[in-house]
Amino acid sequence: MTVQLSDFQGQPALRLRAPDGAQATVLLHGAHLVSWVPAGGEEQLYLSPTARYGEGTSVRGGVPVIFPQFNQRGPLPRHGFVRSRAWQPVEQVVRGGCAIGVLRFESDDTTRAIWPHDFSLELTISITGRELDIELAVTNTGETAFEFTGALHTYLRCLDVLRLQVEGLQNVAYEDAVLNQPGEQWGDVLTVLGELDRIYFNVPGPVTLREQGHRVHLSQSGFEDVVTWTPGTERCAALPDMPDDDWRQMLCIEAAQIANPVRVAPGEEWIGMQQLRT
């Protein structure tokens, strides 16, 4: 079918709309989901009003695709290189009450100069009702195996990050980048006091963000870890693409694969998914 492109902040994008009114917008730049509005609901993703767009940039907010390296945990550019590159639209369709968009990224000479492997990525966005599914498929199209880490770096919009709670992480071990030390979530809820940057390892089940009048349930498959992040006052003030006080309006809860890199043999495929439901 023909994919109908629209415009978002001067960038080509797919706009998805389900029969029940659920909507989403995903940029071709980075296959970056920048908006999700459930049926009868409000915007659920945080997107910085001063975000930067265009070739070579990464958009602050939404859902960046992190591949093939998480953060600076390796020799590659921070968070890899696919979030700042153009993807190709593959499909835009309404099927079974769901609006679905599919984008693809394939290795080329410029990616092989950074990371010497052949691969294909496919990101599938599916919305219906009050549910969003994000699926990342990684295929090894080369002749040698490779390993990668990555994430769906989901920025959730909130009323006030200092007043929300995150449930589902009790007794889970984590690495705290702010304190530079390991820990374990003893309480039944996680609360935010300021800057927060943690990797929770081998999270056993769904996670829920809950605040007055608002909640989001997050579940995942394929991904084993969960990252929680908000920059706090000082770090946010140092970010050129985010207003100083906006850190209180967002919390990242990311489906991630960090502790145990994924190994993909030639011709094989790995699939990871994050599902959000309000």
Keywords:
278 residues; mainly beta; Beta-galactosidase, Chain A, domain 5; nine-stranded antiparallel sheet; eight-stranded antiparallel sheet; 47% strand
Which overall shape is indicated by the principal axes computed on the Cα atoms? globular
CATH topology: Beta-galactosidase, Chain A, domain 5
Give unreliable regions as ranges: none
Distance between the termini: 31 Å
Strand order of the largest sheet: 6-7-8-9-21-18-17-12-15
How many discrete structural domains? 1
Order of helices and strands: EEEEEEEHEEEEEEEEEEEEHEE
* Biggest pleated sheet: 9 strands, antiparallel
Instruction: Please give the CATH architecture.
Output: Distorted Sandwich
CATH class designation = Mainly Beta
Mean pLDDT, rounded to whole units? Answer: 96
Please bin the fraction of helical residues: under 10%
> What is the C-alpha radius of gyration, as a whole number of Å?
18 Å
Described by its quaternary structure, the protein is single chain
Strand element count:
21
Q: What is the count of helical runs?
A: 2
Structural class from helices and strands? mainly beta
Percent of residues in β-strands: over 45%
Can you describe this structure?
The chain is mainly beta and 278 residues long. The chain has a single domain (6-277), classed as Beta-galactosidase, Chain A, domain 5 (Distorted Sandwich), CATH 2.70.98.10. 5% of the residues lie in helices and 47% in strands. It is built from two helices and 21 strands. The chain has helices at residues 109-114, 232-238; strands spanning 6-8, 11-17, 23-27, 33-37, 65-66, 88-95, 98-106, 119-128, 131-140, 146-152, 155-157, 165-167, 173-176, 181-184, 189-190, 196-200, 207-211, 214-221, 225-230, 250-264, 269-277. The strands form three sheets. Strands 6-7-8-9-21-18-17-12-15 form a nine-stranded antiparallel β-sheet, with no helix packed on it. Strands 5, 10, 11, 13, 14, 16, 19 and 20 form an eight-stranded antiparallel β-sheet that branches. Strand 2 and strand 3 (23-27) form a beta hairpin. The longest helix has 7 residues, at 232-238. The radius of gyration is 18 Å and the shape is globular. The model has no long low-confidence stretch (mean pLDDT 96). Its EC number is 5.1.3.15. Belongs to the glucose-6-phosphate 1-epimerase family. It catalyses: alpha-D-glucose 6-phosphate = beta-D-glucose 6-phosphate. Keywords: Isomerase. This is Putative glucose-6-phosphate 1-epimerase.
